[in-house]
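hey
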């Protein structure tokens, strides 16, 4: 069976059910596999999204039966996505865009979060957990509403979300603050995503027994492997590539979860050429890939791609652990250097295996806007700012390396989640209405595209949550609310 080790110690590996329930290991490390299950694409080529999901999740997640996984997968995607393909692969110009935003909150987090509650409830039953599951979430904008939707009214669970007061889009905020389910709460903090994530990690170490819906939870990553396989098999079915031919993926990256799922797919045998790590001006990952030095001591920029405004990309720890030959002691040292000094570095030799798989590019605000306008003009395809970063990164990668491998751009959000940024990309001097719903109307009129129903339905609702606290108050807030939700 597959056992999950903490990246920071060799003791007590756990099965997937326990790793999902705990979220983070007691020593602060992240649960990860030392060996990845082999899933040759030939062996799954006739499966649809659900079949693929069942196959991949049962290969990765020990401690669940095949039947439990199948039931969870069916429930997760039934009626929650607004297209039958769940994650369609769309051609735009001579590129392919993998649309991951057709779920209930119009961002890619739904692809994994829609199944997490099922896995957690099953895991809770197995460990004979008597009390309710309390799920804590730090969000840079999209995870929060996606988790609130996923856990809404799920018996035996409560979800509490912390989001940065500034930086997130008005629609992202409305999706959280208007959520009606009585077992969910959202609270703003005076700080950025890194402050929220640091606070949440501290609470996990101080109050064991809480669960995480962030991508530090392996139960978030495993379902994301599925869409890499699905995209690859779609290209084979279209006749665009032959089975076995490599494909590149360009991934708009923040906490390094989405792209790490691509890495796991590659370890399982999916013929991925290069994973292009695309950053905005918070380009700490790009610098790491170039130099082997990860240094968070820099200015934090609030950008038009807010879900990527992150300086401490948690899931990188799992890649570091792999590159260091699963040496928990060494990984531990690097991570304490990061938390104590704000930086760590790894040697050229240790970077070599990473460089064989990843490329990186970063894209500033002006280029992001230019890309949105240009791609729409030339292909009629409308990119959201996060996807635009990945699109431009794919172009830069091709320019810098001469690599001509077929490239899939991961599209992580609907452009209608960020109407003012997209409208300004078309015309920086345009005078925009204040109100998000008027902005959406304007974007629909300019592009002749339709906003997803899920976004339209939160507009105009009255917020239920208005609390704003300092990061230092997070622990007290959880203790206060844990009893009452
Ligand atoms: C979360 C998010 C990202 C970043 O994904 P990571 O897994 O954190 O790297 C990119 N784009 C959007 C729209 C997101 O919501």
């Amino acid at each position: 069976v597959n056992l999950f080790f903490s990246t920071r110690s060799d003791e007590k590996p756990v099965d997937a059910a326990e790793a999902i329930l705990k979220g983070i290991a007691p020593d602060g490390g992240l649960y990860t596999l030392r060996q990845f299950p082999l899933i040759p694409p030939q062996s799954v080529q006739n499966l649809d999204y659900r079949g693929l999901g069942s196959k991949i999740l049962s290969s990765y997640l020990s401690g669940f039966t095949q039947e439990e996984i199948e039931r969870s997968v069916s429930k997760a995607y039934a009626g929650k996505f607004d297209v039958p393909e769940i994650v369609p692969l769309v051609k735009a110009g001579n590129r392919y865009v993998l649309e991951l935003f057709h779920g209930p909150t119009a961002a890619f987090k739904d692809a994994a979060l829609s199944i997490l509650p099922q896995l957690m409830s099953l895991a809770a039953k197995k460990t004979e957990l008597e009390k309710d599951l309390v799920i804590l979430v730090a969000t840079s904008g999209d995870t929060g509403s996606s988790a609130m939707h996923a856990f809404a009214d799920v018996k035996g669970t409560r979800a509490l979300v912390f989001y940065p007061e500034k930086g997130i889009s008005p629609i992202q905020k409305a999706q959280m603050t208007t959520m009606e389910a009585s077992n969910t709460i959202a609270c703003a903090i005076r700080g950025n995503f890194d402050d929220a994530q640091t606070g949440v990690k501290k609470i996990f170490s101080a109050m064991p027994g809480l669960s995480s819906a962030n991508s530090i939870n392996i139960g978030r990553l495993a379902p994301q492997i599925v869409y890499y396989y699905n995209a690859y098999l779609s290209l084979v079915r279209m006749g665009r590539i032959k089975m076995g031919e490599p494909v590149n993926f360009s991934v708009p990256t923040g906490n390094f979860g989405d792209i790490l799922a691509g890495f796991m797919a590659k370890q399982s045998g999916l013929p991925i050429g290069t994973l292009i790590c695309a950053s905005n001006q918070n380009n700490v990952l790009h610098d790491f890939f170039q130099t082997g030095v990860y240094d968070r001591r820099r200015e934090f920029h609030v950008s038009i791609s807010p879900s990527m405004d992150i300086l401490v990309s948690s899931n990188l720890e799992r890649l570091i652990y792999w590159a260091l030959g699963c040496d928990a002691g060494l990984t531990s040292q690097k991570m304490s250097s990061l938390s104590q000094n704000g930086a760590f570095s790894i040697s050229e030799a240790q970077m070599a295996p990473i460089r064989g798989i990843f490329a990186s590019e970063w894209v500033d605000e002006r280029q992001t806007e230019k890309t949105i306008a240009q791609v729409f003009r030339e292909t009629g395809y409308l990119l959201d700012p996060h996807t635009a970063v990945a699109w431009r990164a794919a172009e830069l990668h091709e320019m810098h390396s001469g690599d001509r491998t077929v490239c899939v751009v991961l599209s992580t959000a609907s452009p209608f989640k960020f109407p003012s940024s997209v409208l300004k990309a078309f015309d920086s001097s345009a005078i925009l209405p204040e109100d998000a719903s008027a902005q959406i109307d304007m974007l629909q009129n300019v592009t002749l595209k339709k906003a997803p129903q899920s976004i339209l339905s939160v507009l105009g609702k009255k917020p239920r949550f208005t609390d704003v606290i300092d990061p230092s108050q997070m622990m007290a807030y959880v203790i206060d609310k844990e009893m009452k939700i």
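The mean pLDDT is 95. Residues 131 and 420 are 44 Å apart (CA to CA).
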